[in-house]
From TrEMBL:
GO molecular function: arginine N-succinyltransferase activity
Keywords: Acyltransferase, Arginine metabolism, Transferase
Protein name: Arginine succinyltransferase
UniProt GO BP: L-arginine catabolic process
Pfam name, any one: AstA
Keyword Transferase appears in the UniProt entry: yes
Length: 336
């Protein structure tokens, strides 16, 4: 059985392995044991309600209970941009007109902004290559929204997601090479590493303060603006299905898009219901449609997909599913 559960310090080795598998440009999964260990400590404290909601970082681990192996990871940040600025580029259009020549020009440009302050963020969605099928990605992705639904007061009214930008067949980011590297003058790997292992002061120090006119940058870099990594298309579609939409903001390093949605308009958050569980190994459960289930409490959060019977007053689930969720008859269960 695949179960999504809170991540903690005991998951450091597994999370580091997933970080190595995720590849270049997956900024939220740095290949750094100390950074990941600190994140998992923060995750445990976040689920336990021991940190301010704006400083929380919830790490969700997808575990195969039959083998004990961690098959994927996802995360939710309580808020971004409060301890340090969360910079993005906004794509804007400047219009110029000369009456002397009757000429009009519309210039697209990138402008450095800090518009996401206080937004909650969903991200870090990664699965082992062999697990990217049969709805596993959807389980892990939607578990984040079930967590938000379980503890809405801990999250902002606006939720954002940043998607990894485009890398070519040589695993090079055209946006970085054509635009960002001109200002930071670092190898991409070093800058990417510094995002999660430093206070980010180098971004505030070096990021461009003036508009960057796109007519002046290489075509490959222009074409990469707002493009999603080849492994990120499924994630983009899942975000769109939940109600996320492009914001016009892009990542300052790889040009990947930022998508946003009001918290309460996230489809899974909006449609989730909480009902008491009735545990019974009813034969009709074998043909019951699969639903997304979760424990509606952050401290005890777990989520999985299983065939259940949903009535007006209770959810009927098998004893195996009840064990997977850690619930018994009479306990409250969230279903969507």
């Amino acid at each position: 059985m695949l179960v999504v559960r809170p991540g903690g310090p005991a998951d450091t080795d597994a999370l580091l392995e997933l970080a190595y598998l995720s590849g270049k440009g997956f900024t939220s999964l740095p290949e750094n044991r100390e950074t990941l260990a600190q994140r998992l400590e923060l995750s445990a404290a976040s689920f336990a309600g021991q940190v301010d909601p704006t400083e929380a970082w919830y790490v969700l681990m997808l575990e195969d209970t039959a083998t004990g192996r961690i098959e994927g990871v996802a995360g939710v940040k309580g808020a971004v941009g409060l301890q340090r600025p969360h910079f993005s580029f906004r794509v804007v259009t400047f219009t110029q007109f000369s009456s002397a020549t009757s000429t009009r020009f519309d210039h697209q440009a990138l402008v450095l902004v800090n518009e996401c302050t206080g937004h909650s963020e969903v991200g870090s969605l990664f699965l082992r290559p062999g697990r990217r099928q049969a709805g596993t990605g959807a389980l892990l992705a939607r578990a984040r929204y079930m967590l938000i639904a379980a503890a809405r007061e801990r999250f902002s009214q606006t939720v954002m997601a940043e998607l990894r930008g485009w890398f070519d067949e040589r695993d090079i980011s055209p946006f970085w090479e054509g635009i960002a590297a001109k200002f930071f003058r670092l190898p991409f790997e070093q800058a990417d590493h510094m995002i999660t292992t430093t206070d980010g002061q180098f971004i505030a120090d070096l990021a461009p303060r003036h508009p960057i006119y796109l007519e002046l940058v290489p075509a490959e870099a222009r074409e990469a603006i707002g493009m999603v990594h080849r492994h990120g298309e499924a994630a983009r579609h899942m975000l769109e299905n939940e109600g996320f939409a492009a914001s016009g903001l892009i990542d300052i390093f790889d040009g990947g898009p930022t998508m946003v949605v009001p918290r309460d308009r996230i489809a899974t958050v909006r449609d989730a219901r909480i009902l008491p569980a009735h545990v019974a190994d009813d034969p009709s459960l074998a043909a019951a449609p699969e639903r997304l289930l979760a424990v509606p409490a952050a401290a005890a959060f777990r989520a999985l997909r299983a065939g259940v019977l949903v009535g007006d007053e209770a959810i009927v689930l098998s004893s195996a599913v009840a064990r997977g969720l850690g619930v018994g008859s009479g306990d409250m269960v969230m279903v969507c």
